[in-house]
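User: When convenient, might I ask for sequence and C-alpha cells for a protein?

AI:
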Amino acid sequence: MNHAIRVHEYGGPEKMVWEEVPLPAPKAGEALVRHKAVGLNYIDVYFRTGLYKAPALPATIGMEASGIVEAVGEGVTNVAPGDRVAYATAPIGAYAEARTIKADRLVKVPEAIGFDQAAAMMLQGMTAGFLLTRTYKVQPGQTILVHAAAGGVGLIMTQWAKHLGATVIGCVSTEEKAELSKAHGADHVVVGIEGLPAKVKEITGGAMLPVVFDSVGRDTFTTSLDCLAPYGMMVSYGNASGPVTTDIGILAAKGSLYLTRPTLATYTSKREDLEAHAAALFDVVAKGAVKIRVNQSFALKDAADAHRALEARKTTGSTVLLP
C-alpha cells in the first residue's frame, strides 16, 4: 500500500489531498525508496499554488526526503536495497510514503545522521553550502547579510558562514526569531527591514556589504540592494513574499551591482557536484560547525497544517513530515 499528498488543482493548503496511489516499480536507472521522513520547504508552496508549474495535475509535490532503498532497476550500481539514502532534487514527488527516483540523484546517509535530520538538511543545507562557497565565495573577515535568518536555510547559512570566518548580520521578523538567530551565531540581528540600510551602514562603519542573501523576494529586494557596497552582489534565491519584478537599470543606479537568481538544481545537476555538495554538508555537520535543528514535525497526511504554519512564518529551523 502507498499513500501520497496530491494536488488536483492549484491553490491553498486545502488543495492537498491524502489519497492512496499505486506503488511504482523502479525502471532502469531508478530506485524505489520507502520514505522515513520528508522535508518541508518553501518551494513546496510554490508548486502547490502554481507559481511553479507541476508537469501535470494531479501532482505529488515535495523535493526532499530520506528513507531506505527497497528495490533498484536495471543498471543501478550506486545504491542497493537496504541503503539509507536521502535526496533533494526534481522531479517533485516526495510527499509520499514511497516513490521511485533516478538513482543517481540519491546520496548515502552516514549512520551518525538520523532520518529526520537527513530529510531536514539536504535541500536547505546544500543550498546554504553552494550559496556561500560557489555563488558567492564568502571570505574570512567579510560581513554578509542573511534574510530570514531564523528559517531553515538561514540558521544553517549563519553557522556555515561563521565557520568560514564571516561576520553575519541576520534579518528576522520577530524578537523571538532574533534570539534564535543569535543563538546560532549571528553577530548582529535586525528585526524587520525598516531602516535596515542605515543599520548596516552603522555596523560596517559606512563600508556596506559585498553580498546579501535574500530568500524573501519582493518585499525585501530594494532594501537589500541599498545594503550593498558598489559592485556588491544581490543573491535572490527565494520568493517567500512574492516574485521580484524590477528594471535592471536599478543595478546601475545603486552602484554597478550584480544580481543572480541561483538554484540548487543547477548547482547539483552533475553527479560529481551533487556528491561534492552533500559531502561538504555532511562534513560541517559531523564537525559540529553546523547543527541541524528539526523544530517542528507533522504527520505527512497533515501536510496542509504544515504549509499553513510555514506561510504564517510560525516555523523556525527545519520541519519534517512523517509518513
Notes: The first strand starts at residue 3 and ends at 7. The chain has two domains: 3-122+271-322, 140-261.
